[in-house]
Amino acid sequence: MSAPGQVSGALKSVDYEVFGRVQGVCFRMYTEQEAKKLGVVGWVKNTSQGTVTGQVQGPEERVNEMKSWLSKVGSPSSRIDKTNFSNEKEISKLDFSDFNTRY
Length: 103
Fold this sequence. Notes:
Shape: globular
Distance between the termini: 27 Å
Largest sheet: 5 strands, mixed
Number of helices: 2
Strand content: 35-45%
């Protein structure tokens, strides 16, 4: 896995919120594992509304792979009803050095 900053092409940032049965099903742990596997950075956390929210940053291709995972895959016990993406934009540098779970 290459270190952050050693990427070619455009860097993207996107915020997300996942709806469905996504709390109490290890969704955050699996999200963090998938992000680290793909080499994207950002964060994930549960909301008081029963959703999971966060931000992903990295090379556009990897961010798109993570968006697909957040929309269709999730953790084995989860049920994703919908995923909203917002504030998608090109960035000049990453705001985070890794991907972690916030509380």
